[in-house]
Amino acid sequence: MFRNPTNTALRPTMPEPIFTRADEEHEKFVSSLGQLMLAWADVEAVLFKLLKHYAGVNDDVGRALFSGTRARAAMTFIEAIAENTQMEELRQRDLKETFAQIKSLNTMRDLLVHNINGAEQRFRADDPGRRELTDAPRASRKKNAKKFYIGSSMIDAMCADCTEACWRLHPHWDLQNSPFKPGHGNGIRSEWQFKSPNPIKGSIRGRS
Fold it and tell me: Max alpha carbon distance in the chain (Å)?
């Protein structure tokens, strides 16, 4: 089933409660997606700060070297620095754990912002609280196309983990934190909330 968020006249003839629930979810989804953009910007800012710290450069040199560096590339640089400088094992392990979650968030964030359909909200009649997300129209190989059913609750979990990741990285630039002890810049660590959903199995048709 589908609805057009900007034109309710295009709804199929179905029981109204289904579309009421879909409307409510759409509003939550839009709000959560906006929050994710802000939360992700915080992650990139923290990674930029961390990269400058471990590269041992000041702000001016950092801007010259890393101004266009995205999150995944920043983590790759930091991991290389950690290995090449024989960074203490506990510090590397903490980075690896946090980076693994950020990379998972990054993958889903990219899928969302590049493939969510803003003109249509497709959902199953028995589950109007989740909508379809697929890269089928853009996948270079049909066999590699993926489809998920996701909701605003998943994006809320991603936002929470973006914040958690930022706080977990704070102890890394604390010059007094040596030998390194994993910590949390805002108190006690929370468990990661986002888990990458499993794609829907079966054939997927692209839409033009």
Answer: 65
The CA distances from residue 129 to 34, 48, 93, 151, 165, in Å, are: 18, 36, 38, 6, 28
Q: Which amino acid is at 7?
A: N
Q: What share of the chain is helix, strand, coil (3-state, %, to 5)?
A: 55, 10, 35
Tokens of 117: 């359909």
Number of CB atoms found within 10 A of residue 153's CB: 15
- For 21-89, give the DSSP string: HHHHHHHHHHHHHHHHHHHHHHHHHHHHHHHHHHHT--HHHHHHHHTT--HHHHHHHHHHHHHHTT--H
**191's tokens:** 């468990």
Give the integer Cα–Cα distance in Å for 66 and 202.
42
Q: Are 53 and 27 in contact (CB under 8 A)?
A: no
- Per the CB < 8 A criterion, the answer to whether 39 and 159 are in contact is yes
**pLDDT tens digits for range 62-116:** 999 999 899 999 999 999 999 999 999 999 999 999 999 999 999 999 999 999 9
User: How is residue 126 written in tokens?
Assistant: 């028995």
